[in-house]
Write a structure and sequence with these properties.
The structure holds two protein chains of two kinds. By secondary structure, chain A is an all-alpha fold. Chain A folds into two domains: about 80 residues, RNA polymerase sigma factor, region 2, helix turn helix motif (Rna Polymerase Sigma Factor, Chain: A), CATH 1.10.1740.10; about 90 residues, Orthogonal Bundle (Arc Repressor Mutant, subunit A). Helix content of chain A is about 75%, strand content about 0%. Chain B is mainly alpha-helical. Chain B has a domain of about 50 residues. Chain B contains 13 helices and no strands. Classes of the chains: A mainly alpha, B mainly alpha.
């Protein structure tokens, strides 16, 4: 990244190859929209180029990258003037039922779990994605979210409990 | 146990990262709080289930778009960098005390250019001067030739003086003077022609003409002038001509003596 910062833009290709799938996964788990997620990955690398001078190299690149990723998501939802981050996510995931391919590939439990995840508050959903899927350490998540490591652990635990509650409720309503 | 430590143990339990002693610690802690470790097992199942949810791979289009963007930004970046450097240069000039210096330098440069422009004649003027010079030369030739044809010897002498003073002579002029040297009825004119030709002795046609002329001359004064002239220009080709003069019966003794001296100087 420091080489990109000093003007060697071609080195951004190496960063792209290393992180594009991971970032796509991050956006996809939140938006459930492949095209949109690819656009957001593209936007993220444009922002990395634009703000590369702001990367000082004193922290991890991934931490800086996910901070930008979160800002991009927030900007996206703000620009689209939706009713709210959480509601949009719920709508997005409800649309999953229309996706025949996904239905074939995924089990019912996964569908239920995804729905439950989309009922979480945006910050809780992000916390679970960052910790469970993106492989970030609690210390790194604390840095991204400008919080302490202990507070992040508590929030993740609460997010898991909330998820469990949503899941159980959905399970009951589906069985009726 | 503090709260931070408890949550750390719980999350590690969900990730199945606890050893037996840590597990025992967690169990006793939960028991004290009125909970059971099995209360967490449902949460652990949920976490396991979450981990199994896969996401699709991004399309190849994403990669293509990225590299297209990178190339475009790279080109733009180079342009911006150039503009940035130029603007930085001007900014540094305007922000520091270098601006007055630059202004003076520009004024001096413009002043120098203006002086140079006024003082240097342009190519059009030069061409005109050259043309006028050529015209004057041809006029001089015409005047000289017409004067050479005049019956008065003084006119012909003035014509020869004109050729000498100009310092330049075309081949036509030289041929005219050579003809005068050989054919003019007046010995003074022929002597003047010989002196005129000697001033153009660097040309082959003149030297050859002078050598051939000596034997044709019937005036000893003209012959002496030519002998002296050929010795002065150190023309070694004159030696056989001088020998002819010496052996000839018609040549004046003074000319023969001067020729012998000439040969001794040229050898």
């Amino acid at each position: 990244m420091l080489k990109v910062k000093s003007g060697d833009l071609n080195k951004l290709g190496i960063l792209f190859e290393r992180y594009n799938r991971m970032l796509f996964g991050f956006f996809y788990r939140i938006t459930s929209n492949r095209e949109l997620s690819e656009d957001l990955v593209q936007n993220l690398f444009i922002r990395i180029l634009k703000y590369r001078k702001n990367f000082h190299g004193d922290g991890k690149f991934t931490t800086w990258m996910y901070t930008i990723a979160r800002n991009i998501l927030a900007d996206h939802f703000k620009q689209n003037k939706r009713k709210g981050f959480n509601i949009e996510l719920t709508e997005a995931h409800e649309n999953l039922n229309d996706n025949a391919l996904d239905l074939e590939l995924e089990e019912d439990k996964h569908q239920l779990l995804k729905k439950a995840m989309n009922r979480l508050e945006s910050e809780k959903l992000e916390l679970l994605i960052l910790s469970r899927y993106q492989g970030l350490k609690y210390r790194e998540i604390a840095e991204i979210m400008n919080s302490s490591e202990g507070a992040i652990r508590v929030k993740i635990f609460r997010a898991l409990n909330d998820l469990r509650e949503h899941y159980v409720k959905l399970e009951k309503s589906e069985s009726l | 146990m503090n709260k931070d430590k408890l949550y750390e143990l719980i999350l590690d339990y969900l990730d199945q990262n606890l050893d037996s002693s840590q597990l025992g610690l967690l169990k006793s802690e939960l028991k004290e709080m009125g909970y059971d470790i099995n209360d967490l097992s449902a949460l652990q199942k949920l976490v396991n289930e979450m981990d199994n949810i896969a996401v699709p791979e991004p399309s190849a289009q994403m990669s293509e778009s990225f590299y297209a963007m990178l190339e475009q930004k790279g080109n733009k970046e180079e342009e911006l960098e150039l503009i940035e450097r130029i603007s930085e240069f001007f900014r540094s000039i305007f922000q520091t005390n270098q601006f007055p210096r630059l202004a003076y330098a520009i004024i001096i440069l413009l002043f120098g250019w203006a002086i140079g422009f006024w003082l240097t004649p342009n190519s059009g003027v030069k061409n005109q001067i050259n043309q006028m010079s050529m015209e004057m030369q041809s006029m001089r030739e015409v005047v000289m030739e017409s004067m050479m044809d005049k019956p008065l010897a003084s006119d012909r002498l003035r014509a020869l003086q004109l050729v000498r003073s100009s310092g330049k002579a075309t081949e036509n002029v030289l041929q005219t003077v050579l003809s005068t040297l050989n054919n003019d009825p007046d010995a003074n004119v022929r002597m003047a022609a010989a002196e005129t030709l000697l001033s153009f002795a660097n040309q082959d046609v003149v030297r050859t003409g002078l050598l051939e002329s000596i034997l044709q001359q019937n005036s000893p004064l003209v012959q002496l002038t030519l002998v002296d002239g050929l010795v002065a220009i150190q023309d070694k080709a004159a030696i056989p001509v001088f020998e002819n003069l010496i052996s000839s019966n018609d040549v004046h003794q003074a000319v023969k003596d001067r020729s012998r001296e000439g040969i001794s100087k040229l050898i």
